[in-house]
Design the sequence.
């Protein structure tokens, strides 16, 4: 078959800008069928996937906001706990200083009381020893006086001899301070 007979048919069919109504309507029908099939089988599932994704994103944002709020609340709670711990630390230090001051005052008072007791005991001891020494001295003086009187009586001496005897007796006595 020669191809030369097709050229008048092609030329007679029209130009490049002519509209073929059959092609137009068949294309339009096929597009509508394709759109209906896509709407039924692809568009609805695609919209569902998009909706689910949007819902997931919203839930993630809500969860992130909730987590942020919880983190903020925990941060505030942590800050309050730190402030409370600081106050407790200050109170403990204050109490410890007060207790140390009370203990220091008690120890000083006890030391003063003990030193006063020791001083009092020493004074009492000195007083007892002084009293004992005075008693001993009186006893010795009485013995010496009796002995001197006995010598004076036995030796009926003249007054000059008696003075000499008393002076000797006094010289023999231990020196008192």
Sequence:
């Amino acid at each position: 078959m020669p191809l030369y007979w097709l050229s008048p048919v092609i030329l007679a069919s029209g130009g490049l800008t002519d509209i073929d109504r059959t092609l137009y309507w068949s294309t339009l029908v096929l597009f509508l069928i394709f759109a209906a099939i896509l709407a039924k089988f692809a568009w609805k599932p695609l919209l569902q996937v998009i909706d689910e994704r949007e819902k997931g994103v919203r839930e993630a944002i809500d969860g992130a906001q909730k987590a942020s709020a919880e983190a903020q609340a925990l941060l505030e709670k942590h800050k309050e706990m730190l402030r409370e711990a600081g106050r407790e630390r200050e109170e403990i230090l204050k109490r410890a200083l007060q207790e140390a001051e009370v203990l220091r005052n008690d120890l000083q008072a006890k030391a003063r009381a003990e030193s006063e007791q020791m001083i009092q005991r020493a004074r009492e001891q000195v007083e007892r020893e002084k009293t004992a020494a005075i008693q001993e001295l009186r006893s010795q003086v009485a013995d010496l006086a009796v002995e001197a009187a006995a010598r004076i009586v036995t030796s009926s001496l003249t007054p000059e001899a008696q003075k000499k005897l008393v002076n000797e007796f006094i010289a023999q006595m231990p020196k008192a301070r």
